[in-house]
């Protein structure tokens, strides 16, 4: 069962909540989405996330809302808007990838939570087993089918990401979808029945055709593209010559610390792994 009204030991300022408060009179933070765009205030002072007593103040037709919990005593909600809604005056819808690159890590963590709760709510309105309308499970972040009893909890997809070292160089690769000149680390989803370490070795082999050894855990990060838990590793080059697969990876090279290309944003675990490498090389980050 999801704990409610209990302090989170990692982010003590945020308390997860499931049941919305009754008789609320103070302003709450509203994480509002249209597809995967988030509604932000144009004037970011004192923050980009809209703070309102009620979502109805915007005069726009919300599809549905979910209560998230409390941030330092302020209630937080996620809201889904219809695809054709326009931003109210003084606000704009921003693509989530663009928005996260401009956010603090603390704000990103909440947006991440909000968008995943919103998408779980949107995509589990009906039972995928029998088609009946699902019901919210009281006191849990879950839905239940009243016909067949199937349960639907937010789905999290484990993915691995790895920094591969060869002497004083690291492997960086480019996906065709990346912004111009940007390179990052090899990453991919864990397959059913596979360990995270096996996924690292397989993804590296499939995408750039090299072998790795000494696969070592680094850390994890929740990542909302689309609902991943990124599991970070370091590894060492073992064998083979780089051969990009030409689909997921269009180019991959060994880079030394003083000739790095454009890198992912500071919040990402990819960048944290690269910054860790730079520190090991004795460079300021
Ligand atoms: Zn069902």
Automatic annotation (TrEMBL):
GO BP term (any one): NAD+ catabolic process
EC number, as in UniProt: 3.6.1.22
Protein name: NAD(+) diphosphatase
Database matches in NCBIfam families: PRK00241.1 (NF001299)
PANTHER family for this protein: NAD-CAPPED RNA HYDROLASE NUDT12, NUDIX HYDROLASE, NUDC SUBFAMILY
Lineage: Archaea, Methanobacteriati, Methanobacteriota, Stenosarchaea group, Methanomicrobia
Gene3D superfamilies (UniProt xref): 3.90.79.20, Nucleoside Triphosphate Pyrophosphohydrolase (3.90.79.10)
Catalytic reaction equation(s): a 5'-end NAD(+)-phospho-ribonucleoside in mRNA + H2O = a 5'-end phospho-adenosine-phospho-ribonucleoside in mRNA + beta-nicotinamide D-ribonucleotide + 2 H(+)
GO molecular function: metal ion binding; NADH pyrophosphatase activity
Occurrences of domain Nudix hydrolase (ranges): 154-277
Keyword set, alphabetical order: Hydrolase, Magnesium, Metal-binding, NAD
GO-annotated cellular components: cytosol
Cofactor: Mg(2+); Zn(2+)
